[in-house]
Structure formats: C-alpha cells, structure tokens
Amino acid sequence: MIVVVAVLAVSNVMTNEVLPWAAYLPWNLVMTAVLLWIALRVDTTTPDQLGLERSGVRRGALVGGIVLLVISVVLLVAALLPATRALFEDERVAGTSVWAMLYQVLVRIPLGTVVLEEVAFRGVLLGMLLRRTSRAGAVMVSSVLFGLWHVLPAIGVEGTNPVLADLFGGTGGAVAAVVLAVVGTAIAGVALCIVRFVGHSLLAPMLAHVATNSVGFVVAWFVIRAG
Predict the structure, then answer these.
(1) pLDDT tens sequence across 11-20
(2) Are 51 and 122 in contact (CB under 8 A)?
(3) Every domain of the chain and the residues it spans
(4) Residue 103 burial (CB count, 10 A)
(5) How many Cβ atoms sit within 10 Å of the Cβ of residue 48?
(6) Is 0.90 surpassed by the pTM of this model?
(7) What CA–CA distance (Å, rounded) separates 82 from 25?
(8) Which candidate, 178, 188, 125, places its Cα nearest to that of 156?
C-alpha cells in the first residue's frame, strides 16, 4: 500500500507542477493502469474488492445515476439563487470556448480526473485497506489521503472566485482556503465511499464524481456566459 501512496504522490506533483496541460489525460490513464496492476498482480486484491466486479455494474449505474441527478439538481438550483450564484463565477472557466468546455466535461474530467481518482481512492486504496483493517478505518484513511491529494490543486484557489477572495484574502486566508479544501474533499471522500458501498460498484462513485466536476463545470460556464 505504501507503494500506491508513493505512486500517487509522484503523480500529484507531476500533474500539478511539472507536466504540460496536454499531458494530463494520458498521464492519468497510465497511472490508473499502474495502480490497477499493483493492486491486482502485486497485492492480489480481487476485482470485487476493487469495486470492479461485473455483477455490480447494474446496481452501480442505478445508484450512481440517482446521485448524479440529485447533485445536478442541487447545482442548478444553487446557480439560480442570487445568494449562491456567485459561487459559480470561477475565473478558471471564463474564456472557455464551447468546444473546450465539451472537451473538459466529456473527456478530460471523466477520463482524466474521475477515473484515476475513483480507481485510486475508492478502488485500489479502499480495497487494499479493507483487507487490512475495518471498514470505518479503510474509509477514514482513504478519505484523508483523498483530501491531501487536493493540497496542490487548492493552492491559489481563493483568487479564482470573488466569494473565495472575500473570505480568504491575504496569506492567512490562502492557508485557510487550502485547509478547507482538504477537509472538504476528505468529507466528500467519505460520501463517495458510502456511494461505492451502496452501489456495490466503483461505477456509482464515478457517476457521482462526474456530477460534481463535469456538471459543476457546465453550470459555472453558463453562469459566466450569462453574466
């Protein structure tokens, strides 16, 4: 398991600090394959323990689809309410063309972000931990690591949104923004683990993750376009 954490640490630095934007997708797909090889061949974790058993696909699609729908509705309502609309005014989305937006939500996010993160944290790490500790312990460790995975992406996030800039301006605020991002994504990790268990398949948290990232991106894109 230490090897998996080390691979993820290296991958995190590479995608956030070293590799060019275009290398993100192929790199993450290769890392996904590496992690699966380690789990299945080296650690001998079974496909079922990884949430990859074929028998769980149907239930996983159902549970994940329901969660995706619920999250999508929540995001749409939040974008329509004046009190929360400003949360979607993300500068990282501003200036994105239609084709670039479609690439993000249909290719880069699902295949580059969701596949790697779900296979890594709700598949490989969770599956390996379940063989070594209790379910609660496995969820806690994998979710904390998922939170720490977001340290580098969270650096400077307070400058991408007017609401975040107001809340986390200054050096102390920047640190607080990173801490909040880590805690928030760790909690999200717990929720995704629960979705994985309920859905009996890794497909369930994958669909939920697509909702938060891809649907969130689309909503933010339309909010910025609408002015």
Answers:
(1) 999 999 999 9
(2) yes
(3) 2-226
(4) 14
(5) 14
(6) yes
(7) 35
(8) 178
